[in-house]
What does this fold into?
Amino acid sequence: MKRASFYIKLGISALFLVLVYLLVTRTQSEASFMARIRQVQPLFVALSILVSCGMVLVSCIKWNILLRHQGDRLPFGYLMKQYLIGYFFSNILPSNMGGDVVRSYYVGKRIESQERSAIAVFLERFTGMIVLLLLAFFGPMFMPAMYSEWIVWAATGFAAILLLGVSIVIGLKEPAAFGRRIADLLFGKIPPLRKLCEKIILAVESFHKKLRSATGSLGAKRGLLTRVMGITLIFYALTLLNVYCSFRAFNYIPPWNAVIAITGIAMLVGTIPLAPFGNFGLTELTYVGFFTIAGVPPDASGAMALLLRLKLFLIFGMLGMVLYLMQRDQEGRPEIMKPRAETREAS
It folds into this structure.
């Protein structure tokens, strides 16, 4: 079943890539795209890579702060290594185990507490997601003409619904009980829909427990939330700069308001888990599609998205793979090579 699911996602990824190709060649020829690639500017490629490294560095700083708040002190280099290993699992390895799960597991082993490790990773991601939702919702306001397209309304509406949902979950003491009352009222006489609602309610209940535990920890120390959110804002400022430099790498100067308007909603749509290898295909399609709406030539946005993907694959993903293979267990072998039987016994 898992293998069938993977092949289905692989097919979806291929479909997205075909759509990217059609978008790029619809108004311009393949020759135009290749000409754009040949205009590569090495200085801005290097700046783009440097900014991406800064994004990883800032994320690890936030992760480190959250761990230290709980009394766990680890070498910063070790956290950087685990973060890069997470890139390998998320973007290269065809695995159902995400990078966040992997880095949480290894850090949990190191600090001898999977719970504290999971809380730190959850908070690092959750605070980032909140800022991303805000950027996706408010970003298009920097380019009001985009609101003429229904897909922009759909994306900003999606961000608004998620923000509202998180607010409700945080505000309610028992969101599961509230959800069941609503589900009984609306779908009580339709068993299939009521069953589906119950699955959603259980997922929300699990999220609520993690959120309560994590935010309680975050709010315990005065100024910690401010520091964490400040670092998160720096991360997204670097994200915008990363997109800008990646455009400049192919001799195209994008309007800053377009970068601000598009990046958030493109990243948000690109997080929907529909394709393997870090949503390969979907992410590229969202960048090309939304930037085309903003008036950016498809060949430029396609080249920019290609550079972003190559950095994930060839730099961070491959470096993460090397670090993972070098990370040996007590028997002196890379853990990826460990037999399944031994892994079960160890657990």
In short: The chain has one domain: 2-17+40-311. Residues 2-17+40-311 form one domain.
